[in-house]
From TrEMBL:
Provenance organism: Acorus calamus
CDD domains with a match to the protein in the record: HP_PGM_like (cd07067)
Domain of life of the source: Eukaryota
PANTHER family per the UniProt record, alphabetical: 2-CARBOXY-D-ARABINITOL-1-PHOSPHATASE-RELATED, BROAD-SPECIFICITY PHOSPHATASE YOR283W-RELATED
InterPro entries assigned: His_Pase_superF_clade-1, His_PPase_superfam, PG/BPGM_mutase_AS, PGM_Phosphatase
Binding site for substrate: 64-71, 115
One Pfam family hit: His_Phos_1
Similarity section: Belongs to the phosphoglycerate mutase family.
Name of protein: Uncharacterized protein
Coiled-coil annotated spans: none
Length: 363
């Protein structure tokens, strides 16, 4: 399912005290402005077709279909249209509907495949606009791999179990009146909204045994880490575990960044530190929580994907959000981005998904 939402018109790019090609938002992520590349499509006359101009800022929300019967069986679906949503898949679609209930959308495009169309119907619900089926949104053809007698063993396509995991937690909103400031010199405690966000994050992580918690030395990061640690160590009292948990809280060295290059360099050092932490085999199946500023977390994600610093502006993280990186082959293997900027656990305390980040300073 693909939904399109309008966004307010653009405002001047926020800079880091220097002129850079990246416009950066400190409270929740990075934005980049680039001239769109020309289309490679060729018209009937042999000339190149240009993409139509977009007159106003837009936002696209992508929703994956809920669990299908073939997902449950661990089979590859491809473009086949035999599977339907399971009860769990219907519930997942309903959760997405509730998450997007208060947001405004102009149009909804959906794959015509049954599993996707049903997911879209649940989410779109009573909205008056008709859904638009788009065949180009179908999954790719996988031919013999998607037959009832798939050569892929049951469960193999459902994904490998992660041996190690890094959970990136952005600290909650702070008391700084300058929410667009990106400098590491800005070190403010969380405001009431940020405190609630940190508590919601701690509650989400309660069902997962985490150790250690690694945080940057900022006030907001330390406070968020301590909130998560206290809830983890009370897991037995809260009924989430039968034995007490001990969680070690570690502090990274102080970060200093005022330019994109400094963010990139600090992110590289942090990435190496985290891989060394995962390499410690004294506790197999580690779940390492990293609490810090969205900028550093974005640098970690970009490093994981083996991208260059020019991609920093292509990612956005909200205050209180969670991103997950799995290492199914251990720290020596490639990291797999499980999710980015997850905020559903914040409920009403999250920033609406269709609200433009250009208004962060007014929130």
């Amino acid at each position: 399912m693909l939904a399109l939402a309008s966004s307010p018109s653009s405002s001047p790019v926020i800079r880091l005290g220097i002129r850079t090609r990246l416009g950066i938002r400190a409270s929740s992520g990075l934005t980049v402005r680039r001239r769109p590349p020309p289309s490679d499509e060729v018209g009937v006359d042999g000339g190149r077709l240009a993409f139509p101009e977009i007159g106003a800022a837009k936002r696209v929300v992508l929703v994956r279909h809920g669990q299908s019967t073939w997902n449950e069986e661990g089979r590859i679906q491809g473009s086949s249209d035999h599977s339907v949503l399971t009860t769990k898949g219907e519930a997942q679609a309903e959760t997405s509907r509730q998450m997007l209930l208060s947001d405004t959308f102009d149009v909804c495009f959906t794959s015509p495949l049954i599993r996707s169309k049903r997911t879209a119907e649940i989410i779109w619900d009573a909205r008056m606009e008709e859904m638009i089926p788009e065949s180009d949104l179908r999954e790719i053809d996988l031919y013999s791999f998607q037959t009832p007698n798939s050569p892929i063993a049951a469960g193999a396509s459902a994904g490998r179990k992660a041996r190690n995991r890094i959970i990136l937690v952005c600290h909650g909103t702070t008391q700084s009146n300058d929410e667009v400031s990106f400098s590491s010199a800005v070190d403010k405690p969380m405001n009431m909204l940020g405190i609630i966000q940190s508590q919601k994050t701690a509650e989400l992580l309660l069902d997962l045994k985490v150790n250690p918690i690694i945080c940057t030395p900022s006030i907001a990061s330390i406070d968020t880490s301590m909130t998560i640690s206290k809830v983890q160590e009370a897991a037995d009292c809260l009924g989430a575990d039968c034995i007490p948990r001990y969680v070690e809280v570690k502090k990274m060295e102080a970060f200093a960044f005022d330019t994109v290059q400094e963010i990139w360099d600090e992110g590289g050092r942090a990435w190496d530190t985290l891989l060394q932490e995962l390499a410690d085999e004294s506790e197999p199946g580690k779940n390492v929580v990293v609490v810090g500023h969205p900028a550093i977390h974005i640098a970690l994600i970009v490093r994981c994907l083996n991208l260059t610093k020019e991609w920093l502006g292509s990612f956005h993280l909200d205050a209180g959000s969670i991103s997950v990186i799995d290492f199914p082959d251990g720290p020596d293997g490639r990291g797999v981005i499980r999710c980015v900027n997850y905020t559903a656990h914040l409920g009403r305390w999250s920033i609406p998904i269709t609200r433009s980040t250009l208004d962060d300073e007014e929130f």
